[in-house]
Amino acid sequence: MTILSEVEDYLQRTGVKAYRLGVDSCGDPCMVSRLRAGRSMRPETERRLRDYMAGRIGPHVRTGAKDKSDTLDRFAELLSEHDLETGDVGGEAEKCGRAMGFTPGYGRKMLSKLRAKMGAQAV
Predict the structure, then answer these.
(1) Residue 17 has what DSSP assignment?
(2) Cα–Cα nearest to 46, from 92, 95, 5, 15
(3) Rounded distance, CA 97 to CA 23, Å?
(4) 97 in helix, strand or coil?
(5) Which of 20, 33, 45, 104 could bond to 41 as cystine, CB 3.0-4.6 Å?
(6) Contact (CB, 8 A) for 23 and 29
């Protein structure tokens, strides 16, 4: 059974909207529509989706932070542990974002927020 057929079966059985399944399982509101369009997904995303549909894990939570400033502080701490001498700060920010459970592209967005918070200092 393909992941798409599993998703369609789950949606039919539960009555959950496609958008809600994507957000709750993986934090991606467009996940089901992309699957329907023929796109593939990363193995870890597919595993998370299957685990969610099987009831083994709860809704997707990006971080354990209590508020946005905690999230930004945690991101800054994680980013400081990476080697930023390579010159690819954006790439390192993406790695940190993925480690925190963010969707692709959000690591760079967090980097922009961090730079704004610090007044564009040495980050």
Answers:
(1) -
(2) 5
(3) 17
(4) helix
(5) 45
(6) yes
CA–CA dist 33, 18 (Å, integer):
8
80-102: pLDDT as tens digits: 766 555 566 777 777 777 777 77
Q: Is the pLDDT of residue 32 over 90?
A: yes
Residue with the two structure tokens 């992941």: 3
Over 80: is that where the pLDDT of 24 sits? Answer: yes
108/90 Cα distance (integer angstroms): 6
Over residues 3-7, the mean pLDDT reads 93
Q: In this structure, what is the dihedral angle of CA atoms 85, 89, 93, 95, given to the nearest 10 degrees?
A: -60
SS3 state of residue 104: coil
Distances (CA, A) of 21 to 29, 47, 52, 54, 62: 8, 14, 9, 12, 15
